[in-house]
From TrEMBL:
The lineage of its organism: Bacteria, Pseudomonadati, Pseudomonadota, Betaproteobacteria, Burkholderiales. It comes from the Bacteria. This is PspA/IM30 family protein. It comes from Rugamonas rivuli.
Length: 270
């Protein structure tokens, strides 16, 4: 007996704790995959409705049979009651035996005695059928309400997911913009590139300064040459023979004029 009690306790513990575990697992699955869980709930509700509807169909058939039995029994009793009025005359005329009359009366009394039971069976069948009809109607309404609520819930879920996707896209865009801003202000690569460009620019500026310094004597010499050409070339082009002679000999104009006069006098004496 103790072993049986132990097994009974074990069975209750298993039923209690694993039943609760099953509820928690079902809840976890519903939270993980609500669409499938909703379909499973609807399938269970639809299956319950289908099974109840089958029972209702059987109850209707049973009720119809009981109702037909009552109608047949009533018709039989009514017919026998009508026949009972003529059986006395037939018995007096010797056309029927008392044994037959006795059997007829026994059957009529038995049928009348059976009528309350048949009526009760008909009433019970009707009550069972009506209760099943009420359950079927309730399950049908529950299934319709479930479908309506499930449709609204699925629409709400789809809308929520759309909003979630939108917010994710907005967050992703903000992250991209923040990344670009960070690259402009804090990117080591961009900073190094900027410093490199500045260094090259400074180097080029320094080279230009050095080149300009080296180029300055050449530019000054060219300027002097240009000045000489601009001053000397017109004078040379228009100078007289005496002026040219003065320039080439390095003599002053007065000395050159006296020398010329002496040479003229000498030529005259000769």
């Amino acid at each position: 007996m103790s072993n049986l009690n132990g097994w009974g306790l074990t069975a209750r513990l298993i039923s209690k704790h694993f039943g609760a575990l099953g509820d928690r697992v079902s809840e976890a699955i519903a939270n993980f995959d609500p669409e499938t869980a909703t379909e499973a709930d609807r399938d269970r509700l639809a299956d319950s409705l289908r099974q109840t509807a089958q029972k209702l169909a059987a109850a209707r058939s049973s009720f119809q049979k009981e109702a037909d039995d009552v109608v047949k029994l009533r018709q039989l009793i009514a017919t026998d009651e009508q026949a009972a009025g003529t059986l006395g005359d037939r018995l007096a005329a010797g056309k029927i035996s008392e044994a037959t009359i006795t059997l007829f009366c026994d059957e009529l009394e038995a049928n009348k005695a059976r009528m309350p039971q048949e009526l009760q069976e008909e009433a019970d069948a009707r009550q069972y059928m009506d209760e099943l009809q009420t359950i079927v109607d309730a399950l049908s309404k529950q299934l319709a309400d479930f479908d309506s609520a499930a449709k609204k819930a699925m629409q709400a879920l789809a809308s929520a997911r759309a909003q979630q996707d939108l917010q994710n896209l907005r967050a992703e865009r903000q992250a991209q913009l923040a990344g670009l801003a960070g690259m402009r202000g804090n990117s080591s690569a961009l900073n190094a590139l900027t410093r490199r460009a500045q260094a090259i620019s400074n180097e080029a500026a320094g080279m230009k300064i050095v080149t300009d310094i080296g180029q300055r004597p050449y530019e000054q010499a060219a300027e002097l040459e240009a000045i000489r050409k601009s001053v000397s070339q017109p004078a040379i082009a228009n100078e007289s023979a005496l002026a040219r002679l003065q320039r080439l000999s390095g003599q002053q104009p007065a000395q050159l004029a006296a020398s010329a006069e002496t040479a003229t006098l000498a030529l005259g004496k000769a």
